[in-house]
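Re: duplicated header lines in exported structure tokens

Our pipeline writes sequence and tokens for each protein into one text file. With two proteins the header for the second block appears twice in some exports. Here is an export where it did not happen, for reference. First protein block:
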Amino acid sequence: MKLIKRPYLALSALCLAVIAGPAAAEFPEKPIRLVVPFASGTATDQLARALGQAITQEVKHQVIVDNKPGGNGFIGANEAARSAPDGYTVFITTNTTHAAAEHLFKKLPYDPVKDFTPITGLGKGGQIMVVNTQFPVKNVGELIAMAKKEPGKITFGSGSSSSRIAGELFQQLADVKLLHVPYKSNTFAVTDLLGGQIDMMITDTSTGLPHVKSGKLRPLGYSAKTRSPLAPEVPTIEEAGVKGYDIGYWFAAYAPAKTPQPIVTRLNELLTKAAKSPAAKSAFYAQSGVEVFVTTPEELARFQTDETKKWGDIIRKAGIEKE
């Protein structure tokens, strides 16, 4: 039986390869849907639209951005995970759904590993630490000194997992105690920061920097390893004295699990080319300060594993209980 079975299996695999090859070469033959787990106008949405325009120019088929906001990204993630694995649904998401969520919530309606096939990374961004101009600190060192003098008195707001964990990591590495104030979104937190209801926050650059430029908020530091090209005068938080501080957010593309490998390869080609295109760079990357970060599917899988561990370690050390 084994002598009969092995040639049969080999022939079956050859037939599948022959079928998949032309299918991948002709892909796509209809519009591609990019599912975004956040609302229109968010950074993830802006990135998806910039990529969609570049891909449309390449393949001559429309790319549709389908926003599925709500539930901490769960609604969009579940929608993408349950879609047909034919390459025509791509999930454009962030570390929120694919690194942080499993450590912040007791139960997810999707599995960030088993329910998805990695395609490519898309971008990495840093966050900016800002305070109200009336708040009496001029730099990170002064903030740390005040926090040590009055533990638990200084408040920091956050409206995303990236913002929250950035604040938690700051407390851990600077050895200070701050009071966290949660918000539904970073924009709401910034509004209260402008009004003086909270003292500080670490938010995505696209949300915080416009208020820095207008003179309404004071920048203290940047969360990534290197300074932001949009605010090169702002030192990194590590440069400002918090050794080892490096955290931001990232974007990546995933297909539903069991999407054929030739189709995943083709999607990787389309998305990496789109991310590097002049159109996407001018429409999103140059405007947001996000750096292009493209990978192979295997590299994205390894990166996600490392990031999930990193975020999990910070969350556990902070003592954050799962909701």
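Second protein block, exported in the same file:
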Amino acid sequence: MTFVMHLAQCYHMNRVKNMLLFIMLFLSQNFFAQNKWTLDDCVAYALTHNLTLDNLRYATESNKEIYKQSYRDLLPSISANSSYNIQYGRSVDPNNNTIISTDFFSNNYSLSASLDIFRGFQKMNSIKAANFLYKATKEEELQEKYLLAFRVMSAFYDILFFQELVTIAKEQEKISLKNYRLVIKQIELGLKAGVDKYEAESLLITDRLKITQSENSLKAAKLQLIQEMNLENTSVIEIDTILEDIEKQEGKYNVEADSVYQKSLSFIPIIRAQEFRVKAAKKDIAVARSSLMPSLSLSGGYGTGYFETNTNDLNEVIPFKTQIRDNASQFIGFSLRIPISDGWSVRSRVKQQKIALDRASNNLEIQKQELNKLIRELVQNYRATQNEYSQTKQNEKARFLAFSISQKRYDKGLISAIELFQSKNLYATAQNENLQVKLKLKVQRKTIDFYEGLPVFTINKNN
């Protein structure tokens, strides 16, 4: 009975150990899976750790504060003043305006306010101009976010390319190693001469060199992505290598440059930013012209004071509280200013603002022209890459068949190692070309999607 219980306990302990081992393996797999970066992860990290974007955020915050202040400028201007004066030697008695030689002190207090009633709509136009400039800087910040996202995407796909290149190089090395071992056996059986060993060994070393070169290129690509992301304290990064099926995606796309361009005009940040700057320049002209118009303002105030020379009939200094009450005075008034001549300085500012408007409008047309040119080149290159991809894929299949035949002929001793190497090298080159075109097609497709307004990147446009 004791033996049976002992077996049961051992079984239970082994079961617990197996469960713990399974949990540890599961957690470790999840841990390493979480360390793999997707493209969205890379872009999101880069957007929150880029120093250039920080500068643009500061510029946006500054223009936002300028915009808020333009509203506050509509409020009345209020100021309070106080003074304490000690008179020495000859001075004017504030009671009777006579000259005295007595030292005395005085206190003065005043509160005043002024409000612009009309200034040629200067402040309202300033508010609108500040708002347009604030929106322009927000769009410029968003433009830089998209540019950063594209740089990250380019580095991301470079890693994918070189990872696949390493895989291809290792497959080629396996073939060469297999052939090298086959040659060794054939030499031992007397079927091949000793010189064939050196040829096979040379081909194997060449393939191993290609692996090293591809791995070095992969390290450089990873470093580029790390730098674009501003990922600190690390030199290693692993990315998610899952790619969509190119054939399934490309079959449903038929893009036209004019259609893409018209869609992009409504949301591309650099275009919207320049449109806002044109609107701001128009309001700046109105602000400059307002100085040519009459201005009307309302002002009012309260003042009082205490003077040591203020005495009553008994020649006693009147108390502070009494003087503050009795010396009080108030005023209210309107001020009208009509500009007549200022050396044409205002008209000169108006002309300068008109020139600034022409410059902003011209910059807008330049940006539109550059965008149109970029999209047309992108669509044309995309169509060319589609054709290239179809051809490189067929070429890869053909080269694979040719290499398979060469391998069989080499195994039978019908061709030399050099001839086999040439066939294998052509197959590897075809693989590389097809991979390169495939990834280029993917990047171009994502870029066109962006200009068509599709959500390529997860970017907060309002922040």
